[in-house]
Automatic annotation (TrEMBL):
Keywords: DNA recombination, DNA-binding, Transcription, Transcription regulation, Translation regulation
CDD domains listed in its UniProt record: IHF_B
InterPro entries hit by this protein: Hist_DNA-bd, Histone-like_DNA-bd_CS, IHF-like_DNA-bd_dom_sf, IHF_beta
PROSITE patterns in the record: HISTONE_LIKE
Designated gene of the protein: ihfB
UniProt organism field: Silicimonas algicola
Protein family: Belongs to the bacterial histone-like protein family.
Keyword DNA-binding among UniProt keywords: yes
Xref: Pfam families: Bac_DNA_binding
GO terms (BP aspect): DNA recombination; regulation of DNA-templated transcription; regulation of translation
Function according to Swiss-Prot or TrEMBL: This protein is one of the two subunits of integration host factor, a specific DNA-binding protein that functions in genetic recombination as well as in transcriptional and translational control.
Entry protein name: Integration host factor subunit beta
Length: 93
């Protein structure tokens, strides 16, 4: 599902809301999640899962084309851990 499909589904299920308001709500939720993760905070959506940020240390990598050593800087990457309810629903429990 992409963002526009999510907006359309929410708008269809809530005919009392204007589509532009639903778009603003979805955008605000995503923006808040992104801002919290940028601060290094953990975002938990009960029953769905938790978003967090993990730090990857710098290392020496290899260029696959030439085989030369390349210095890879440390970086922060998003991480998602599924919630129990989501795992159970995916596994038919």
């Amino acid at each position: 599902m992409i963002r526009s499909e999510l907006v359309q589904k929410i708008a269809d299920e809530n005919p009392h809301l204007y589509q532009r308001d639903v778009e603003r709500i979805v955008a605000t939720i995503f923006d808040e999640i992104i801002e919290a993760m940028a601060r290094g905070d953990r975002v938990e959506l009960r029953g769905f899962g938790a978003f967090s940020v993990k730090k990857r240390d710098g290392r020496v990598g290899r260029n696959p084309r030439t085989g030369d050593s390349v210095e890879v800087e440390e970086k922060h990457v998003p991480f998602f851990k599924t919630g129990k309810l989501l795992r159970d629903r995916l596994n038919g429990k």
